[in-house]
Amino acid sequence: MCHRRPDGGSAPCPAYVLATRLLQDKSYIPYGSFQRHNDAEGDRFGYFGGTLATAKTIPTRLILRRRTLQLPLATSPRWPDSKTEPSLAQLSGLLADIIVILELSSPGVSGHPSTAHGGVLASCFDETMHKAVTAHLLETRQVGKPYTAQLHIRYHRPVRVPGLLIIRAKVVARTGRKFWVRAVASQQLDHGEETLTTDAVALFLQLGDSTTCRL
User: What pLDDT shows up at residue 33?
Assistant: First the structure.
């Protein structure tokens, strides 16, 4: 599950109290991976696994899936008020479908000194939320691929690098082929507290072989 460094060293996650607690949570199980790009797979995983997540940018990527997924609401949800900052307790209490643990390197993902680039964070959110939708599709044995139709991110605090970033994502509603997902990112501060850095909401559209469908 854990991608190791090219020098053969062990992944750093056990050194982080928050990551260790999440990995020991029996409510979650290992779930796939963000594969490194393989030419034999064509363009699958090409951007995240081959371009974005490298040994110098995001050397460690861990994915956990909730053992028992909760059925999402069957009605379109209200999008969060852009003027109200959510609390970490409120969002983490959603019982995330997917938890992603990322080791972010510096200067590999830096936009400013010791600060992660916002575009990199957006890609990490998109990948994590996509994993949540995919988990629900596999749970119900449905075919079709989820595509991002809308993604809204709020940056509350800078994400420090190098450091560990935790992203939790949950499918909160579904109507037909539309999936609404909420996600939150956090980091563990020096004094041990977990602090909200970023949150996001997204709409995913399930498509079949043709990608010509419209919302």
Answer: 65
